[in-house]
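testing teh design pipeline on a random one, pls ignore if ur not involved
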């Protein structure tokens, strides 16, 4: 894989506030920039994001293109980026509000080179950059407290480990094409669905030590609405990939339904000790240095977000399986049993 071109795909929509910092972290990569081809797919930004990207490409060492996706859906943007790649290229997905450590791409490509041939994708843990505002600190706690977004292995830890999914992702040459590209019927969780499809083909996914951290760009209410949407599309994805259902996917909707049932029954007072036990677990899972006020707020914020996620999943069940289909039929990879 030495010398292989790396095609970097970045969906963008109204990211001008952070984009200069993000692009600077890409320019600072300790990697042969001549091996990179950068594809930014703009969803019709109105804040000058596309212009910032074009100027950065014009003045820098990295070759690339800025292309348009007026439909904005991320899987469509990712597939538009794949149009600029061949089956001989490593594919790296980057996010437009994530800052990348100077060895991010070098470490990812090296991890793929050293991994067994059945490892199709590597990625690092998902970590936030805490902001200065109280609401940003509250949202950051979602990603650092196991009682926030659950115990998905790609969010915690830094050791090399086989996982179901990773944050962002860097793929071996030809893998995404063999899998059929991203599912354009999905409006969220397209990356999780892709990971499920890759593993169904007989490949593995590794979490490896990669240094990056995302900038929190939503407040408390925005994140609640976001996770309601994620819950809906996570359920749709799992309906099409039932082998990927895990206990953590069921805990939140079961807990939400149980809480509502208790609240409507004569046993509603049981909610008090249950909430006390939940709050204790939240306190025990808080990050080092987290303020007491933030922790106290998370005891109410986490359940609100989890109820929204559960409501999204239940809404998806009510509406049936829908048209969440695989974009193309994918052949089984040679040499994988």
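output:
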């Amino acid at each position: 894989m030495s010398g292989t071109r790396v095609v970097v795909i970045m969906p963008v929509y109204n990211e001008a506030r952070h984009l200069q910092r993000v692009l600077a972290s890409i320019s600072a990569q300790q990697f042969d920039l001549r091996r990179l081809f950068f594809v930014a797919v703009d969803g019709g930004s109105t804040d000058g994001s596309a212009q910032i990207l074009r100027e950065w490409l014009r003045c820098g060492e990295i070759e690339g293109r800025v292309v348009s996706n007026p439909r904005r859906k991320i899987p469509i943007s990712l597939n538009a980026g794949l149009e600029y790649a061949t089956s001989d290229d490593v594919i790296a997905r980057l996010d437009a509000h994530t800052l990348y450590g100077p060895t991010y791409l070098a470490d990812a490509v090296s991890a793929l080179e050293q991994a067994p041939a059945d490892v199709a994708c590597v990625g690092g843990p998902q970590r936030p950059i805490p902001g200065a505002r109280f609401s940003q600190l509250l949202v950051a706690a979602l990603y650092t407290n196991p009682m926030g977004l659950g115990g998905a292995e790609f969010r915690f830890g830094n050791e090399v480990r086989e996982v179901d999914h990773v944050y962002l992702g860097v793929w071996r040459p030809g893998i995404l094409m063999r899998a059929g590209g991203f599912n354009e019927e999905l409006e969220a969780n397209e990356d999780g669905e892709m990971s499920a499809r890759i593993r169904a083909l007989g490949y593995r996914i590794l979490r490896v030590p990669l240094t990056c951290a995302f900038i929190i760009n939503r407040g408390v209410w925005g994140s609640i609405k976001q996770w309601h949407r994620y819950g809906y599309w996570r359920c749709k994805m799992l309906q099409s990939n039932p082998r990927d259902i895990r206990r953590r996917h069921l805990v939140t909707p079961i807990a939400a339904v149980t809480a509502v049932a208790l609240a409507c029954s004569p046993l509603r007072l049981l909610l008090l000790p249950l909430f006390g036990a939940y709050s204790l677990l939240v306190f025990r899972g808080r990050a080092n240095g987290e303020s007491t006020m933030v922790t106290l707020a998370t005891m109410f914020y986490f359940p609100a977000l989890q109820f929204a996620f559960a409501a999204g999943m239940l809404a998806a069940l009510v509406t049936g399986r829908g048209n969440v289909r695989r974009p193309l039929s994918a052949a089984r990879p040679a040499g994988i049993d």
